[in-house]
UniProtKB/TrEMBL annotation:
It comes from the Bacteria. InterPro entries: GHMP_kinase_C_sf (IPR036554), Mev_decarb (IPR005935), Mev_diP_decarb (IPR029765), MVD-like_N (IPR053859), Mvd1_C (IPR041431), Ribosomal_Su5_D2-typ_SF (IPR020568), Ribsml_uS5_D2-typ_fold_subgr (IPR014721). Residues 178-313 form the Mvd1 C-terminal domain. GO terms for biological process: isopentenyl diphosphate biosynthetic process, mevalonate pathway. One of its GO terms (cellular component) is cytosol. The lineage of its organism: Bacteria, Bacillati, Bacillota, Bacilli, Lactobacillales. Residues 10-165 form the Diphosphomevalonate decarboxylase-like N-terminal domain. This is diphosphomevalonate decarboxylase. Its EC number is 4.1.1.33. Belongs to the diphosphomevalonate decarboxylase family. Keywords: ATP-binding, Lipid biosynthesis, Lipid metabolism, Lyase, Nucleotide-binding. Signal peptide: none annotated.
Amino acid sequence: MQKRIGACRAHTNIALIKYWGKRDQTLFLPTSSSLSLTLNAFYTDTRVQWLDNLSNDLFYLNGEKQSKEETNKISRFLDLFRDELGINGYAKVESYNHVPTAAGLASSASAFAALAGACRESLHLDWSNEKLSTFARRGSGSATRSVYGGFVEWNKGTSSVDSKAIAIDDANWDVGMVIIAINKAKKKVSSREGMQLTVATSPFYSQWVEQSEQDLIAIKEAIANQDIQRVGEIAETNAMRMHATTLAANPPFTYFEPETLQAIASVQALREKGFTAYYTIDAGPNVKVLCKASEMSQIKQHLSETFTNDQLITTTPGDALTRLDHWEYEDVTN
């Protein structure tokens, strides 16, 4: 098989119907399906070069050569392609993240989606985005959804083959989001640890999974009707139900901080003023506000009365995985 250079850009996403819990830790198969919005403001560019003179994989992040531990994570992902295609050889991987730490968004979503796309390009694979999403999933669950733009469903499937992303809607109908960055510090309970503890000990968990599947049906209907208010209502409720499962875990824990509650109150106040604004919160303290794109600047202005401008980031929906024909970054050495 001919090998060459391939590069791709992928945007990160925010789940509106949450992914919270795995039924298979190795294959990253979720307990329930989820739905997200891909975000234009945050992305990762990744280039993969298969080189004959390498004796191991190389990984550079933002121009800096990474440790053996971090490189091993990339090598395990590349192994998926090596094993699938029956090929040997090693690659130099260069990745540039444009996902601010303070945004409270998982850069792993865009990172592994971009890496999967760069592998497809470099190996001349005629794979659909749906198939590619099943590989991105093995790097990071949320990366499954970053293969597509707009509103995207991650169908939980029945196996590794059909647990994949599905494009739902391009979200090109006055959809926007304002990120309220509360705290960029490392979480006391990681997402992976939180998921496992919740699944194992929270008596609310099975009910949340059942309700989440109903929320997915409802939000897809609201998206089809381009009803941003209804989409926001469902997303907000789904997020709070997810966080309720953590409070019922043993031992109980929460990702909320005092400013998280302050942000929730600010969003509720925005609605009282007539704005279309609904919050969603992942496994962390940061708050994301789903709103009309046409109201984003006003919403940011109102929020700036409580939060600093550095804490507020606006974005519109992002595009699907994109091939990069021009690499804008300086080449790094072996």
